[in-house]
Amino acid sequence: MSVDAATVRRIAHLARIAVSEEEVAPLQGELNAILAFVEQLDAVDVAGVEPMTSVTPMAMKKREDVVTDGGRAFDVVANAPETEDNYFLVPKVVE
Q1: pLDDT of amino acid 49
Q2: pLDDT tens for residues 29-82?
Q3: Which UniProt keywords apply (predicted)?
Q4: Domain locations in the chain?
Q5: Angle at 33 between CA 29 and CA 36, to 5 degrees
Q6: May I ask the CATH class of domain 5-42?
Q7: Alpha-carbon dihedral of residues 27, 33, 39, 45, nearest 10 degrees?
Q8: pTM score over 0.85
Q9: Dihedral sign, CA of 25, 30, 31, 32?
């Protein structure tokens, strides 16, 4: 696939990039080089290759979802100015 000057101008317009006439030819060459590289990648056989999220194999670090420090509600609200039944009491701010 080859990109012509009109396509470069259209891409620039869609991307909302101001491109002067002097910049069209260099951009055309750059876009054609990028597309040529993508065509090279398309030739690589990737059958049987698993998708990766990283180049180094990693496993998610997981922990059990358990309560490890429960039953201390009184200690949690001990320094609160006002409490009731182990709940914080706060002044009403909305009428």
Answers
A1: 87
A2: 999 999 999 999 888 898 988 888 788 888 888 888 887 777 888 888 999 999
A3: ATP-binding, Ligase, Nucleotide-binding, Protein biosynthesis
A4: 5-42
A5: 140
A6: mainly alpha
A7: -130
A8: no
A9: positive
User: Three-state secondary structure along the chain?
Assistant: CCCCHHHHHHHHHHCCCCCCHHHHHHHHHHHHHHHHHHHHHHCCCCCCCCCCCCCCCCCCCCCCCCCCCCCCHHHHCCCCCCEECCEECCCCCCC
Residue 12 pLDDT more than 90? Answer: yes
Q: Which residue has the tokens 């620039």?
A: 12
Entry field: residues in the chain: 95
CB 5 within 8 A of CB 25: yes
CA 80 to CA 41: how far, in whole Å? 63
Contacts of 32 (CB under 8 A, 6+ apart): 2, 3
Angle in degrees, CA 85, 88, 92, rounded to 5 = 120
